Amino acid sequence: MKLTKAMIYTTAMTVMLIVSMRVIAADDVLIRITSDLPFLEVMHDGKIVTIIRNQDEKHTVNPIYAKTSRECPPFCIQPAKLAPGVETIGELEMLDYLARMSAGNKSILVVDSRTPDWVKKGTIPGSVNIPWTTLSLDQGANPDSIRKVMEDRFGAKYQEGLWDYTNAKTLVMFCNGVWCSQSPNNIMNLLKHGYPPHKIKWYRGGMQDWEILGLTTVPG
Questions:
Q1: In 26-46, which positions are buried (b, 16+ CB within 10 angstroms) versus exposed (e)?
Q2: Contact of 99 with 44, CB cutoff 8 Å
Q3: pLDDT surpasses 70 at 9
Q4: What is the average pLDDT across 118-131?
Q5: How far is CA 69 from CA 25, 64, 98, 124, 200, in A?
Q6: Are 126 and 187 in contact (CB under 8 A)?
Q7: Does an H or E element contain 8, and which?
Q8: Which domain holds residue 142?
Q9: What is the H or E stretch that residue 209 is in?
Q10: pLDDT for 131-179, tens place per residue?
Q11: 170 in a domain, yes or no?
């Protein structure tokens, strides 16, 4: 999936952004996302947020994502392909979905599947938080609360004991990284309810890869 020209901000004379309290032109962005994409503006909580890579070449990864070794289980390395039909995506695909959402496409929802204690440390601009526990019967969710999320947030319809996913959103799920099972849990629970696999995308690298690349985060 490629970013379209309409989603790319490349005109240095007209596109400006604020970095470290300074207004600079796009041509002054030295550490770009791609050669054609210096930054991307998205909507988050009704406000425009600029996603840009950290411009300090001495910047290092957030310490909470620098840890290499966590006890497994539960922090086990996830497979590259989570389930048949569920597409695994990277950063540029994530940015594409965020751009389309910000352009008014209401058929897409980017979901941070982590628990609030993680989300408050920072999340991807444009995402909404729906913790993995919300869809898990084993974690205290009940059929009524799950149904409410499926209908109110995801656009599915429950009719006469059956789910109708005709107008259900494309869900782009992420969590902490390749060692995190929170978004995989959300995805597997959705599949158990019959959610169409082709309407589920998984950003496997999650916050760890996002932070490693120096991309913008916002408070959850």
A1: beebeeebeeebbbbbbebee
A2: no
A3: no
A4: 97
A5: 40, 12, 31, 24, 29
A6: no
A7: none
A8: 70-212
A9: helix 206-212
A10: 999 999 999 999 999 999 999 999 999 999 999 999 999 999 999 999 9
A11: yes
* CATH code of 100's domain: 3.40.250.10
3-state SS class at 204: coil
| Long-range CB contact pairs, 144-150, < 8 A, 24+ | 146/193, 150/193
Q: Are the beta carbons of 29 and 3 closer than 8 angstroms?
A: no
Look at residue 193 and tell me if it is in a domain: yes
**Confidence (pLDDT) at 6:** 39
pTM to 2 decimal places: 0.88
Cα–Cα distance, 214 to 29 (Å, whole number):
13
Residue 149 included in any domain: yes
* In a domain? residue 38: no
For the segment 64-77, what is each residue's pLDDT rounded down to a tens digit?
A: 999 999 999 999 99
* Ramachandran category for residue 206: left, alpha or beta (phi over 0 → left; psi -120 to 50 → alpha): left
Rounded to an integer, what distance in angstroms lies between the CA atom of residue 150 and that of residue 156?
6
At 175, which amino acid appears?
A: C
Residues 6+ positions from 62 with CB-CB distance below 8 Å: 122, 211
- Identify whether the C-beta of residue 108 lies closer than 8 Å to the C-beta of residue 188: no
